[in-house]
Amino acid sequence: MRAIYTFVIFLLILNFTISPALAEKILGRVVGVHDGDTITVLTTDRQSLRTRLVGIDAPEFDQPYGTPAKQALSGLVFGKDVALDVTGLDRYGRTLARVFYRNLDVNAEMVRLGYAWVYRLYMTDETLLGLELAARAAKRGLWSLSEPKQVPPWEWRRQPHSFR
Fold first, then answer.
1. Exposed end of the chain (fewer CB within 10 Å): N or C?
2. Over the stretch 28-87, which tens digit does the pLDDT of each residue have?
3. Residue 126 DSSP one-character state
4. Would you identify the CATH topology of the domain 23-157?
5. 155 tagged catalytic
6. Among this protein's residues, is 94 annotated catalytic?
7. Strands (E), the chain
8. Residue 1, Cα to own-chain centre: how many angstroms?
9. Maximum alpha-carbon separation in the chain
10. Which of 29, 52, 155, 157 is catalytic?
11. How many whole angstroms separate alpha carbon 57 and alpha carbon 156?
């Protein structure tokens, strides 16, 4: 029992020492765009950060609008200097961040243009919901597809491959 308490205390200490370091702004250049919500940023100190745009979820490659979503994100940030507002790491070790190019909130812009859903499970900014609703109403991006093809990526990933 004492080992469990020691372990819990260790985790709490680790959380308090790591969290402030993760809640920082990092500057770098986008050197890779993997899909509509994941980029690689080369930081000013030459560190490569695989970065997931927090709060949004773009279509998968084999999903309708997967390729246009990647192209849209690439057009917004590839080869450009960005600022990352880091919020943590995901379960795959990717940096979670709000991405800014100049004064443009790239995460919000992907939703506004209709290339990404608000990822409700990990949503921290409710203003993104208004942007998604406006994109839906205007039938921008993926919202121009017929309703059966508007499957959120978190549901798409749960579908068996044989039914895709």
1. N
2. 999 999 999 999 999 999 999 999 999 999 999 889 899 999 999 999 999 999 999 999
3. T
4. OB fold (Dihydrolipoamide Acetyltransferase, E2P) (2.40.50)
5. no
6. yes
7. 25-35, 38-43, 48-53, 56-57, 81-89, 95-101, 104-105, 117-118
8. 39
9. 59
10. 52
11. 11
Residue 32 buriedness (CB in 10 A; 0-12 / 13-18 / 19+): middle
What is the 8-class DSSP label of residue 117?
E
Place of tokens 């940030």: 77
> Token digits for 97?
């961040």
- Number of other residues whose CB lies within 10 A of the CB of residue 52: 23
Catalytic residue among 2, 24, 29, 60: 60
The predicted model scores a pTM of 0.81
The catalytic residue among 2, 46, 50, 94 is 94
136 labelled catalytic: no
CA gap 92, 73 in Å, rounded: 21
